[in-house]
Amino acid sequence: MSLLVSSAASGTSTPASSAPSSADPVAVPFPSSEAAVSSASSASAPAAPGPLPVLGLDVRAPLVTGGELPYAALDYAASAPVLRSVWDDVAAYAPYYGSVHRGAGYLSQRSTAVFEESRAAVARFLGCREDDEVLFTRSTTDSLNLLASALPSGTRVFVFETEHHASLLPWRGPGLRTVHLDAPRSPEQAVATLERALAEAPEGPKLVCVTGASNVTGEVWPVRRLARAAHRHGARIVLDAAQLVPHRPVDIGELDVDWVAFSGHKLYAPFGAGVLAGRTDWLHAAEPYLAGGGASRTVARSADGGVEVEWQSGPARHEAGSPNVIGAYALASACRALTEAGFDDVAARERRLTERLLAGLGELPQVRVLSLFGADGDAAGDGTDAGRSGNAEDAAGAAARHRVGVVSFVVEGWNSSHLAAALSAEYGIGVRDGLFCAHPLLAALLGAGRGASGECGAPEGGSLNAVRVSIGAGTPDEHVERFLRAVRELVRDGARWRYVTQDGRCVPEPSA
Ligand SMILES: Cc1ncc(COP(=O)(O)O)c(C=O)c1O
């Protein structure tokens, strides 16, 4: 890894190794000895196509049936493990941590430089346009709520019912109107539905909010085509990239979206930072998202006895309070790690594992993998869909091309909470079960008539919940193989332990 190293004496930046590329690393204003530590630790990362090193692979999970196994984290879609290089970078920076923006001291200046360079690194990672800006937030949820707070009064927001609640719900504030669009059953239908809704809308500001990849089905949405439709009708578009950015390169200019939102904790950098990147005009015209220090340029008592504020322009306007410099730095470090590993190679390896997941689950007739778009899921519209050949492996391969590594499914005769509990307690595997903060989507996929989750064991008439398995850059092949073997055995032989319902979830019975 090349690092830009500031001379401690002069504060000027010089290349530490080879000339920086267009995917420049964060300029870390460390003395060169510390930079060497950071550089060496990160440089040990093996190149793709192996998994990228993440923490937690040696954690052993106790089994209810006795013994223990290395924990298999297959819940990347909720929160991904931390990349080792991110952890090392944070550890190397930690002694230099200081207050950002307002301190005159040496470490404050260095931390301010780290924070601003992290912003620049994220902008490069996203291919931001010249007049875009990157705001650091707490998460995708925070980013979308920030944008909602900055929309011009009267904005109509168009959102599919299939969105994660973080994208579905922020647009309910005063002065906004939300148009909810029915679940489309193909990428073409998504574009046509949006076109129709926009064409019928009256004049005025409009925003489309759409996911890049579903947190339930993993299916990739036709973002470029939706952006084209939005812009054709004078609307803007924000991409909820929470599930896309960790799995595929996202270029804001190439996709031609107006904003992108994502979270660090899904991008191997769980230090509390998220991003909203994109157009500045609406953001600069809006009241600050949070009122407080940092967002205000001047504050003075007014003639009427109150207080008058002149707000900042630029990112500071919406970043009031003390910035999360470690979170921002970690997030930028993850961007750099993916770029340096060759993001296309990382994505190709994930695609192979996703294909293996889909093919393995496809061999079990009791398993139904959830899909909104079915065999017509060619979101990019590139005509590469081989899924119609009727061959199961071809179908898995085609489906994997149109998904990130997120697969949800239900098993005939199984309550999903029961299956997830058995995977954990008997195989040391962590997956997610439930409705994944996408209740209308689950209702569309499973049928709203299905009853709520019942007791553990085979539910009467099914349950409105599913199991989600999700992978990422750090997933070893063994985790996927263990998961497939576990589902096969559980479906064939049943659980080896007894489970009871506690607070609505299945848990192993302590005395079984
Ligand atoms: C598609 C999608 N959007 C938004 C979010 C919200 O992310 P966060 O909880 O980090 O705010 C999630 C989280 O799972 C998600 O999957």
Automatic annotation (TrEMBL):
Cofactor: pyridoxal 5'-phosphate
Any Pfam family matching the protein: Aminotran_5
Keyword Transit peptide: no
Tree of life domain: Bacteria
All copies of domain Aminotransferase class V, residue ranges: 74-370, 399-483
Residues forming coiled coils: none
Record keyword Metal-binding present: no
Gene3D superfamilies assigned: Aspartate Aminotransferase, domain 1 (3.90.1150.10), Type I PLP-dependent aspartate aminotransferase-like (Major domain) (3.40.640.10)
Region (Disordered): 1-25
Keywords: Pyridoxal phosphate
Full protein name: Cysteine desulfurase
Record organism: Streptomyces nanshensis
